[in-house]
Protein 1
Amino acid sequence: MKLSILPKIIIACLIVVFILWTLTPVLWMISLSFKPYGEWRTPHLLPQKPTLDNYRMLFTPQALQIFIAYTAIIEPVTGPLTRSLIVSIIATLIAVIIGFFTAYGASRYNTPGPFTLFFTLLTRMLPPATFLTPIMVYFTTLGLFDNIAGLILLYSATTITYAIWIMKGFIDAIPVEWEEAALMEGAKPIEVLFKVVLPIARPGLVVSGLFIFLMAWTELLFALVLTNVHAVTLPVQISKYVTAVGALWGTQAAIALLGSIIPVIIGYMIQKHLVTGFTFGLVRA
Amino acid sequence: MSRVVLRVENIVKTFGKTIAVNDVSFEVYEGELFTLLGPSGCGKTTTLRVIAGLEYPDRGRVYIDNVDVTDLPPRDRNVCLVFQEYAVFPHMSVYDNIAFGLKSRKISKLDIDKKVREVAELLDLQKLLWQKAGKIGLSEQQRTAIARCIVVEPKLLLLDEPLTLVDAKIRERMRRELRKMQRDLGVTMVFVTHDQLEALMLSDRIAIMREGKLIQIGTPQEIYDNPVNLFVASFIGSPTMNFLEGVLRVFEDKLILESDVKIDLMRGVDTRPYNLLDGKKVIIGFRPEDAFISPEGLIKGVVQHTEIAGDRKIIHVKVSDKCSIRVFVDLYALIGIGDVTSIQVNPLRLHIFDKETGLKLLRAGV
Amino acid sequence: MPEKPPRSVKILATLPLNILLNGVLIVPFAIMIYLAFAKWSPLMGINWWEAPFAAISNFQRAFFDSRFISALSRTALFVSIVVPLEFMLGLAIAYMLQGEFKGKKYLIALLIYPLMLPPVVVATVFYLFFQPYGPVNNIFLYYIIGERALNIYWFLDPSLALVTIIIADVWQWTPFMFLILYSGLSAVPKRLVEAAEILGASKWRVFWTIRLPLIRPLILIALVLRSLEALKVFDYVYVMTGGGPGIATESISLYIYRLAILYQDISYAAAVSIIVLLAIMIISRVAIYFFIEKR
């Protein structure tokens, strides 16, 4: 079966164009991040005198002063970086643990029922901006403003729906018979949950965990609202570099790059399940 | 002399390390129902797919109506394939399924409608025309798949085990209907099945395949009467042929098989044709229906078991520790377990196979 | 499994969830309703629970707020442009990637990385990209229209600024559409495709009449989910254009953000938020009925 070659060539060209489209923005960002100040406006793809200055400035923001008199950036990037890590990890743990129990109940006993499950979807489908106002007021009153605890709680609450739906999908796929057999042999339901279901559902925990971590790490809006100085996370810091600082292109590129390393690594770890995550478990690759 | 519609030449197809089809060649004549028969994995479906154009052979050519179609995609070959799982388009109506192949050609809507309705009527689908094909019953789906193919008037109709998924009760009827339809329409059909009974019943000619190789081609009668080797002999015919293993001894007027006992096969016949076989290790084969109980029977044994087979009985006779044969007897014959009996085999229906190669050494009836 | 859950499981499955959701989200939601009917701003110097009652004045104000209405319509316009664009592009790529070829897995892995990036990062990338001396002007357009390319200030022109946001969103989310469509198309049973091929259908016809119809539910899911996400657009607008020039690219999320954080007009922000929520719920309801009827 030999097909004519022309359509294939056209398609190949189009695919190449799409590949270029996909790669260019980030390639540019990478190259910018290594370009010295003088080269920021040049059209070359490769820096002629590559330097790590942009990255160094992230760690010693005092150096930014030479560019502009006042800058809103007063801390090195290590702060927001570690905070993002801490917030994301803890929020993930909370969401996954609670989500696991909820998913199990929902899968095997319909408790909580479909109404509650749908309700959790709303937390994600509705624009977060629509509840940022009361959240801000509420958290401030509770003393959770500019406090990573506030962010952790908020992220857990808004991402738990992913945990529930994704893990429910995984648990649904486990044959009920194994648990029933264990119950008949006298195991307590909690034991069944931990000894029979948990080990098999572990991939589901990992997938939803990594996905939630991704969501928490990349969140900007609430972080902007709920942080000021002490709890600034990496996305906020990145936005500050762009909005507050001005034309510091190289440095902006550098911090953007820094902020994408971990998400991309995680993204490739759960590559096959990305679609599952984004569609709340509705689509299985 | 019928026209050759399909010619398959030296087809070889491998998948990775497995040779699925190993140098297969045959011809199919116009209007005949040609069957590829063999056990699972023998390459018959792959061969069918090569003919259809769904697989590209590693070697060999396919000719349809004397045109080399090997390099053509399926749609340019003027063939149609009915899949084992029917593969009707579930989201379309039965009408649209049947009309599907016609829409690719430049035919007016009126003509399409006419043809679709004609074929639907032929296969008793008129009432279902507007149902979604995914929601109708299995046999309706099968008829839709067949209708879909017939309506495009292909040169060749290929069917991949179409009756395997069908309920045993309906299978009989469907076989007859299929055969009748093929005859009425005069369409050349290549049929794939593993059911030898089905093949014998339906086909004009059968090609038996095993492990990728073509073993024997012939009419059902030829294959039944003259299996070319042990495999064919044991595969065809139900109940299976009797087999006795041993060394053949040819004497002036008798033929003896030396197994754990000496078994008289023939007496009073001219044994010259068998002379070359003297001393050979052979396997003797004869069908239960070609042996009968007779006082002059040469083979003596004890009845171990009887069973009813339709309008006759089968008795299992133990001749020796190693040799046991099955024979048909009358339903009301007065014979039972433990009886000593003597069996006569029709010498014209005795097959002799070489023990090592399995090949037929002598045509029966010589 | 027994119908009723054992007590221990029931508690585990519902209590933590309830505490979390109620404590973190439901209570603020109630507060929001309270605030929308009150008049309060931190600038007033009193605590929010002491705020005076304002009946529906906030809501009335919203209906005459031209900035609010333009933010709404702009966001709706944005969604109606990016979602179809991403769908068609994603479909085109999924179509082109149908056959088998070497390195396909790697190609797909490469094409989907935009999904993994934080939207802030994507916003930053395109912010840099569309700078006057950035690659778009300096490299691409330079070759087309020469020196004048350097004078195009993407972020200073209302329409161009919107274009940059659209491009950022399309760049990041087309792979999402592609992935869903691609996995759906791959799941179509091979036999059906073969049957269609044998009956004479071209690759194109097979695509349109067999594969695509069979993934219709998937397409709907993709469109709905993506539309809901696109409505929320904030990161790109905040970082790239700041809603500008002026308020030419201000999305509804940005507007609410500004009301609450910049202008500190809390109760009004709450009212606006409620209106948006209701609008989305109503539209979704209508859309769902529309789709169910279509069956």
Note: The interface with chain C takes residues 52-54, 73-75, 79-81, 83, 85, 87-92, 100-101, 104-105, 145, 148-149, 152 of chain B (CB under 8 Å).
Protein 2
Amino acid sequence: MGQDLTIGFLPLVDACLPILAREHGFAEDEGVSIRLVRDVSWATVLDRLLYGHSDATHMVAPLAIATTLGRGRPAQPLAVPFVLGLNGNAITMHPDLATRLCPPGRLGDPAEVGAALAELVKERVALDKPIRFGVVHRYSSHNYMLRYWLAACGIRPDIDVEIATVPPPFCADALEAGEVDAICVGEPWNSVAVQRGTGTIVLATAQIWRRGVEKVLAMRESVLEEKREAVLLLIRAMCRAARHFIDPANWDTNAAILARSEYLDGDSAIIKRAISDRLLLSREGEIFHYPDFMFQYREAANFPWVSQAEWLYSQMVRWDGTPYDRTDAEKAARVFRPDVYRSALMGTGEPLPGASSKVEGSLDATTAVSMQQGNMTLERNRFFDGVIFDPADIPGYLAKLP
Amino acid sequence: MRIAIVDESAARASIIEEGLANLENCEIFIVTERRGLVARIGEIAPDIIFMDLGNPSRDVLEEYFAVSRALAQPIAMFVDESDDESIGASIEAGVSAYVVDGLSAGRIRPLLDLTVQRFNAFARLQADLAEARGRLAERELIDKAKRILMDNRGLAEPKAYAEMRAAAMNQGKRIADIAEAIVTAHKLMGDN
């Protein structure tokens, strides 16, 4: 009997793995057929998931946790058996601001750009015209990375600067119209703003947290139980897609597929740049190579570390202004499902770490880790301010942050 | 009751408006502009908002509801578990609804049903239109192919048509497919 799954996505480069699992026949080969449904807002993606129009979806990671905890909507337990990728977002500013913050031709240093920005923020507050940032969703990694960086640089989100929601396809317009001064968004939307001359890329989110969790594959917990067999096959197929995605030999082919009208409906040259960790920072500039701008496969990037969910919960506490709650923290931790990931890949060549949780941001050099299967080293994974997240003590961590 | 219809398609918005116009005690506001959406919704202070599921600004509106300090803020309609069927129908039709807390299901339900009907009616209209356009395009293609046969083989019009029909029947294809093949072949031969 054939297995099939309907998967929702937004037209972003990091929707690549389910798309390529389908297009290259990895899914069919594993024994699951995939139907993809494109939407243009996370609200609609979520509605389809909760009402059974889709079985699983490409989702900003914090939204999976917010939905489980009932933030903004009635609580519905979601499960994340697979991380679709780390990082891949950037902060793009209006060119007039960018020239004051960042030397031309390269990405800035997060601490230096932050210090310069803090001065600018003061000026704008004095003029009663606070700097305004656009992020793609309240419960997005973009929002949390941006806020993490701002706060660590002494800039208070919602007090010194405004942060508003701007849908990705409108980001370039919003910069042009002066509705926002800067955006934090995924590709291809930074590059679209650059191409139109309305933005300059100043930072990649990978500079804020070198290995920050980004999009995930989310599904309802009940659907995961019902369709577990199909999900395991999907995970294997997406791992193959991820291996294919990072191979330079496939960049042109994959960019062309993602650019098609039924997927991103975009420019394959821009998509190829993102895939190959290259960015045109400003319209007049040269292409800049920032390794691991997107991080889709190496170091078991797709493994849903429980500590990632716990970090996201810590930021939710921080920015929703709700108190830390032990029960909520446990619920949030259970959203990420390394157990499912393991059962899908046991006996394959994919590396499986021995632990399911780790201290995040603690590695300053390449480090070998103990494994359940295969061999693996983890590279540097620091936050730019050097603070380390120990999931065993979330309140202690929060107390250390500004 | 104040009802806001947020739709970038002005045509669909007016079809929905027309559907709701006869309801008593309802004031309807149409918002088709993306810019200033949040401010406009703030001014209208609606009890119910209907919004196209394909509108990227849904996330903007939800953010506004989440942070706004006003007392009666609308929340996503997908709240009442007992009403799955009607919510399912609305997602199927492509419309989302936000209602202020405390509005009874009995008052929302007929409005939602009407809106869903109107959304479906609009989708049918579009499908009919697309089909009509398709037929027109086919008709033009067949005429073009007929002319090629008439010019190249000196056939009379009825004979040219009869030949295409015979070929279609023999190959189990539609006449439009045969016509397309003729036109394509003709182009490839560079014999315009």
Note: Chain A has 18 helices and 18 strands.
